[in-house]
Design a protein that fits this description.
The structure is a single chain. The protein is of the alpha/beta class. Among the domains are: about 240-410, P-loop containing nucleotide triphosphate hydrolases (Rossmann fold, 3-Layer(aba) Sandwich); about 440-620, P-loop containing nucleotide triphosphate hydrolases (Rossmann fold), CATH 3.40.50. Helix content is about 40%, strand content about 15%. It is built from 21 helices and 22 strands. A hairpin with a 4-residue loop joins β3 and β4. The radius of gyration is 29 Å and the shape is globular.
Length: about 675
């Protein structure tokens, strides 16, 4: 028998609805805390509502519309009208919400085309009923649980009843509870479910955040202490200084002041003792690779080995073309290992890595295969780290001898961003971009404007010598065994994408006029490597006006003349990946554009359009990673999951960043003062 069936008022139908919402035990109910509270003491006139307000008002339903994927309810009071939006338009809602009914409505006012409240909390009222009261908890509701006052009140009653019978076991010691100033957990939870005031809620929530964060911060502090006790030091020596000077002399550019500052931080950490574990964050084109190269020289110049892992053969080959002559100038041997490396060459590279004569290995997933062994791998660089899973990154690290690790990313994955907040990663940021670059303008293009877009692209290419990337969603995922297949975006396979590629090529070619030199080509993961390289080389030379591609071009393609990006199926890409794609443009001094195409048949759901407009509003990679963190969660901080909301019920990793850092410092002090410390 279910634990919940013992609660007052929970019959078979109610039990089924609770289970559909993921509430199956007393623990689930106890920790299913309100997401906010409605102050029902004051009714707000509709005409006074402003964006960001937590509103509570009464109204009558004027009209109900059911466009695809949502329900729009138009309501009004004596002062004005307003829009309520429901994206999960269940039959229950259309049966309950119809013109003429009187409602009380509560929720946060947002602007999407116009002011509206999405998924408000609502109650049907009699004409003479006064809905005012105290604080009403508003719970997260899914499945068959509707956003009504009665539903929230019932959940509150069930949670309080569950609290009275649930057996708590406190993982914190009496000394820890005393040091953190914590009362029994049940008292704080009871306040969240039935508060007298918002001040009470704030205090109880603060205690529960401390409770869940403290064990994590303590564990992380201990891990940091252990890392500081291991790892080879790489201080500056005459040999490493000479190698760095030789590489700098070979570089066709000088480092910016920001690059020099970050490089100094990394090399200081490499020379200080203890394992370095860092994230080098900088927007696309900020010069992360040059900093990584010179930090690698510190290790390779001392006789140890360095591995640089890249997500695609295109990017790995570009790194090799650039870095090999620069490192050769310093006498540092370099090799490239990918899924397309010929067997005989692969065996020779593996032998040199195993004996230690090859100092720097650049490559794709091929570096992770069992046949690759290093004599003394001491520094691991992971480029575009968001493209690799936790286990993949760990595979390379495990091939080393307590190696230092540096991740490079324009948009850290949510898990990595969370780790940086906990202090597991030293975050270094490149804020500058090369001089002369202009911000990319990003626009959402409705389906009825796409013919105009094609005309604009053709005119830009032929008149202003601009070039176009046209991206369609992915085809084949990477094969970890071979490193083959470059596309890793959000869905579909080769068979799905080939028609989309062919259709895009056809549309673009049709946009040209008879007799014009209007050239359109395509590349994707199934184009043979020699043919793909030929097309990309021609595109770099400006011989191709429009390049239709999958995400094979997401990283590693640097064409200053290509300042136009079009993304089909933008809703199928994460914001981090869209940021990478957009970063292929804007590499010169001309104005660059990124266009996100609306699906012609169905359009975008409101939530998707809101996400894409948020992406279009910023080029800051950390802000984009924060959007991803809020949407996807940070995953398991101790395991392999890179998304999801894990065990953190009360903490907002972004809003509570200062608290997390403070607790990390307190955990360090606790360990120092403990007898074992």
């Amino acid at each position: 028998m279910s634990e919940l069936s013992r609660l007052t008022g929970v019959g078979p139908k109610r039990l089924k609805a609770l289970e559909a919402a993921g509430l199956t035990t007393l623990r689930d109910l106890v920790y299913h805390i309100p997401r906010r509270y409605v102050d029902r003491t004051r009714i707000t006139p509709i005409a006074t509502l402003r964006e960001g307000d937590d509103a509570f008002f009464t109204c009558h339903i004027d009209s109900v519309q059911t466009p695809p994927g949502r329900l729009i309810v138009r309501v009004s009071d004596d002062t004005g009208s307003f829009e309520l939006a429901f994206f999960r338009a269940a039959r229950f809602l259309t049966e309950q919400l119809y013109p003429g009914r009187r409602l009380s409505v509560a929720g946060q006012v947002k602007r999407f085309r116009s002011l509206q409240i999405a998924h408000p909390e609502w109650e049907i009222l009699r004409e003479d009923q006064d809905p005012r009261g105290g604080l009403l908890p508003v719970y997260p509701l899914t499945g068959e649980l509707a956003e009504t006052r009665a539903e929230h009140k019932l959940l509150q009653k069930l949670a309080l009843e569950a609290l009275s019978s649930f057996q708590f076991s406190d993982p914190l010691s009496p000394a820890e509870r005393s040091r953190l100033g914590l009362r029994p957990e049940v008292e704080a939870l009871k306040i969240l479910h039935a508060p007298e005031s918002l001040a009470e809620v704030e205090a109880a929530l603060a205690e529960l955040k401390l409770r869940e964060l403290w064990p994590l911060c303590l564990k992380r502090a201990q891990a940091r202490r252990e890392r500081r006790a291991r790892g080879r030091r790489f201080p500056a020596t005459p040999e490493t200084s000479a190698a760095e000077a030789a590489v700098r002399a070979a570089l066709p550019f000088a480092l910016t002041a920001g690059q020099e500052e970050v490089l100094e931080e990394i090399t200081t950490a490499l020379g200080a003792g203890g394992q370095f574990f860092g994230l080098l964050h900088g927007d696309v084109g900020s010069g992360k690779t040059a900093v990584a190269l010179l930090s690698a020289v510190r290790v390779a110049g001392a006789g140890a080995q360095v591995a640089l892992l890249a997500p695609t053969e295109v990017l790995a080959a570009q790194h090799y073309r650039n870095m090999e002559p620069w490192l050769r100038a310093a006498g540092i041997s370099t090799g490239l290992l990918t899924g397309d490396t010929p067997p005989a060459e692969r065996r020779a590279l593996e032998a040199r890595l195993a004996e230690g004569s090859l100092r720097v290995a650049l490559g794709t997933h091929a570096l992770l295969s069992q046949g690759v062994a290093f004599a003394d791998l001491r520094f691991v660089l992971v480029d575009e780290q968001h493209r690799f899973g936790v286990e993949q990154r760990a595979l390379l690290t495990q091939k080393g001898n307590e190696p230092h690790t540096l991740y490079l990313s324009a948009t850290p994955i949510p898990r990595t961003l969370a780790q940086s907040l906990y202090g597991d990663l030293d975050v270094l940021t490149l804020k500058e971009k090369p001089p002369g670059r202009v911000p990319v303008k990003t626009r959402l293009v409705p389906s009825h404007k796409q013919a105009e877009l094609l005309s604009f692209l053709r005119a830009e290419a032929l008149t202003n010598h601009n070039q176009v990337y046209w991206v369609v969603p992915r085809i084949t995922p990477l094969d970890p065994a071979s490193g083959r297949g470059d596309d890793i975006d959000s869905g579909g396979d080769e068979a799905d994408a080939i028609p989309a590629i062919e259709n895009a090529v056809k549309r673009l070619r049709a946009a040209g006029r008879a007799g014009e030199n209007w050239t359109v080509e395509a590349v994707h993961g199934r184009v043979p490597a020699p043919e793909r390289d030929r097309i990309l080389a021609a595109f770099r030379r400006g011989e191709i006006h429009a390049l239709v591609a999958t995400t094979v071009i997401e990283v590693g393609v640097d064409v200053p003349g290509a300042n136009l990006m079009v993304v089909e199926g933008a809703d199928r890409f994460g914001v981090a990946q869209l940021h990478q794609l957009r970063g292929r443009t804007g590499r010169g001094s001309a104005q660059a554009w990124c266009f996100l195409l609306e699906p012609a048949a169905i359009g975008w759901p409101d939530e998707t359009e809101e996400r894409l407009r948020g992406f279009a509003s910023t080029e800051d990679g950390f802000k984009i990673a924060e959007m991803d963190l809020l949407r996807r969660g940070a995953g398991s901080l101790d395991g392999a999951r890179q998304s999801g909301f894990g065990a953190l019920r009360f903490t907002d990793l972004l809003a509570d960043a200062d608290l997390i850092r403070d607790l990390g410092a307190r955990a360090e002090a606790w360990l120092e003062s403990s007898p074992a410390g």
